[in-house]
Protein 1
Amino acid sequence: MSEKTPPKKPWWPGLPGSAADWELTSNFISRPLAAVLLYPVRASASPNLVTLLSLIAGLAGAVLLLVPGGLTGALGLLFLAMVLDDGDGQLARYQGRSSRLGSFLDKSVDVVRFGLLFPILSWLAVEQSGAWIHGMAGPLAAFGLMIQGYSKWLAIAMLPPTDATSTPGVPAQDPGRRPWASGLSVAFLWPFHECDLTVWICALGATRQWVALVWILAVSQLIAGAAALFSRLWQVWRAEPRQAEPRA
């Protein structure tokens, strides 16, 4: 008897099975672009190398914002960093090379990239307006974004698994279910997820609307950070074992 050939993994990205995971930019722009860009090297490229290329492009783009005449190149590099950031996970899943190291690198790159970019955007807003108060917006945006990531992974580490194969704290998803109505509602009503931020930066940065940009980033990420913190706190509280009340 001949051995069965394992099913080939699909390369082109599908839509998430959970409405909460529908992100406007990631689902409809960066993931499809990453699939096209990395298609020729999908079987051989190292996911971790793509993650590092995303970091280099993001840092170079952030620094280039400060260089006179470098705006177009800076925004192009920031957009490329966003696409590669979605492409590394896609490569890892396709090649069956997902790893803890890759996940750690991916999350660390996001922290470093946005941690440098947001204060630089605030500096540009202060330079443009002459008002120091705008210098607070970038660090506040970075603070809100980091709260989201920290609370998520802290909850994942503390919550019990939902089943034998799922990640702790992350509900299992039905891969065949596509919640179009609720998913599109989430994507369009809250266009401030991680990848969405790069589109805001490119759109408002191209017109040099630095003051509006940094406060959009700050307010959206502080709201998202507070919502993430309280929702994770609620999850952990509900998972806490309860002792039965002693009978009189």
Protein 2
Amino acid sequence: MITVKFVRDDSRRITGVFMNGHAGYSEEGSDIVCAGASTLIFTLANSLETVCGLKTEDSSNIVEGEDVSAEVTIPQWIFADDKVSDRAQVIAETIHTGFITLAASVNGEGEQYINIIEDN
């Protein structure tokens, strides 16, 4: 199972997304749930870089293999600029919605491939 943890600060802004595990939906290399989750976490990291100017190497650590391990953080300095902060939050909330939607579409009937944790 893939576990995705969303960390929020006191203002309810997403400040980090942490993902690890393997969905086990299908064999490694053909697991569409893992592919979907990987796409979402890479989109988060790359969008924060292209839209907000956050350097991927400073804020992201993504290791792929049998089990994916990923950490994407949004540093506090981003929140000093309202325009950049708003963009970062739109991106992060969109990715949050993507993970919720993915989990809802594949989990069920006693099968859980993605677990979403909200750390407030």
Protein 3
Amino acid sequence: MTRRTCLFPDGLIFASGNRGKFAEVAELFAPLGAKIIFGPERASLDVEEDGLSYAANARLKARAWALETGLPALADDSGVEVRALDWRPGIYSARMGETDADRVKWLLEALGGAGDRYARYVASFALFFPEEGFCLITEGILPGRITKTPSGARGFGYDPIFAPQGFDETFGVIPDGVKRKISHRALAGYRMLDILSKDSMIE
């Protein structure tokens, strides 16, 4: 682990103002041995997410925060995709209401009594290095289903109505420690950590 810290001698910016995500990311990327810095502690940015994919939006945010702070920046973009809704809302997941409760209500009403409740959480991570001008991108996909009613108060976003494959409970009920090991964000993070652990990334 100690060899990897040379990649981030001054720390790594998490390019978001979402403290819930920051807590997950700080724990997930702890093996780097680098200080993970909550974005708003260093800058105040409102990046327009007009990309056409999770990866594109994550890169837009990571690049903007990296150039603003001069530090490598890690950003994510994620959403829920529902098969019965032609994989909507997708990259627009956060725009389906003003609050998490509004977004959950929208999705349940849009899905109605549909028998097909299959859904998947998708996340992309982008890590932008300002001095080198390059970006690493990974993706994680977690299959599951949308429940008919919300359950639990943990997590954020659509967590109270998303039950991951292999579980009866939603992420609103599943303990945070479990969620942080199996989530779409965790899967994308593991892939990023794997890339960063390669000798070619360090030497």
